[in-house]
UniProtKB/TrEMBL annotation:
Organism listed in the record: Pseudoalteromonas fuliginea
EAL domain residues: 19-278
UniProt protein name: Bifunctional diguanylate cyclase/phosphodiesterase
UniProt keywords, alphabetically: Membrane, Transmembrane, Transmembrane helix
Length: 278
């Protein structure tokens, strides 16, 4: 028994140290990527029932380590290592630079650009100032920028967050709560935040299929979010729509905005422009 116990500990130690090695590799790769600003942008279109009405900007990097793990893995590590703000601002500045070029030729004046930011930005005293400086530098109307913040990260830093969110709203920026439904937002707290949009987390869309949905058995979480949004007058984007069935079902519940592989995968700037000017 003793022997198995010891082996088990060694097994855990090995797993733990592997995890630490990977983390360390990622931090080194992030450091370098920040240094040479090698991050670039992908674009994931957001649609209403007949046209592209906006786009979410997603971070990419061709560094071997970063490419292997993807942003879902390295963004949280960047947050932990204190690197996220520099990354967010590389993305924001590159995004503004592209938007400045695209803007004069966009016909739909309501077209919006959604940019992910870490909720850690909301605690930073300098965040608003830096954003406004870039807005001026690139001559971007704040109304076309929607910042996406994850629901979970928002609720854990309530006090500081609210002030920055108010400032962003007052400047004209839009705000959306990302991965909505996975956190524990007391729904009546929603009115305390200056939010425009809820993005239903992919996991709730994922399990919509012919077997889980019958006339009697509806997807309650999606329904709850939609009625909540109705109550507080918020837009809802369904994320991760992969099948016609999911799209039809979401439409039948009164959802108006959609994003997912069925409609478009994340694409590079050239492909995005060609979709935009089709
Ligand atoms: P997110 O904001 O929830 O972004 C959506 C993620 O889901 C993207 O992954 C996208 O490619 C993926 N996705 C969208 N539709 C579908 C679908 O129909 N099927 C499947 N299987 N996947 C779908 P990605 O690009 O790997 O981004 C992962 C996360 O990294 C993002 O989740 C976001 O939280 C974070 N992130 C991405 N870019 C940035 C950034 O510039 N700054 C910060 N702070 N975070 C970012
Ligand atoms: Ca997002
Ligand atoms: Ca999301
Ligand atoms: Ca996510």
């Amino acid at each position: 028994a003793k022997k198995t116990g010891k082996n088990r500990i060694e097994f855990f130690n090995e797993k733990l140290s592997n995890e630490l090695v990977v983390k360390n590799e990622i931090i080194i790769a992030l450091d370098r990527a920040i240094e040479i600003k090698s991050f670039f942008l992908n674009f994931m279109p957001i649609y209403n029932s007949n046209e592209m009405i906006g786009v979410e900007i997603l971070i990419r990097n061709d560094d071997e380590i970063l490419k292997k793990h993807g942003p879902d893995k390295y963004i949280p590590i960047a947050e932990e290592a204190g690197l996220i703000s520099r990354i967010d601002f590389i993305v924001i500045e590159k995004a503004f630079n592209e938007i400045k070029k695209i803007l004069p030729i966009i016909k739909n004046k309501k077209f919006f650009f959604a940019i992910n930011i870490s909720a850690l930005e909301l605690n930073s005293e300098s965040f608003i100032g830096k954003i406004l400086k870039l807005i001026t530098k690139y001559n971007i109307p704040p109304e076309i920028i929607e910042f996406e913040i994850t629901e979970t990260s928002l609720i854990t830093r309530e006090e500081n967050a609210t002030r920055t969110l108010e400032q962003l709203k007052n400047e004209g920026f839009k705000l959306s709560l990302d991965d909505f439904g996975t956190g524990y937002t007391a729904f009546n707290q929603l009115q305390n935040y200056p939010i425009n949009t809820l993005k239903i987390d992919r996991s709730f869309i994922n399990n919509i299929n012919e077997t889980t949905i019958s006339n009697k058995n509806k997807n309650s979480m999606v329904e709850v979010i939609l009625s909540l949004a109705n109550l507080y007058d918020l837009n809802v984007v369904a994320e991760g729509v992969e099948t016609e069935f999911q799209l039809d079902y979401l439409k039948s519940l009164g959802c108006h905005f959609f994003q997912g592989y069925l409609l478009s995968k994340p694409i590079d700037i050239d492909e995005f422009k060609s979709k935009l000017f089709l």
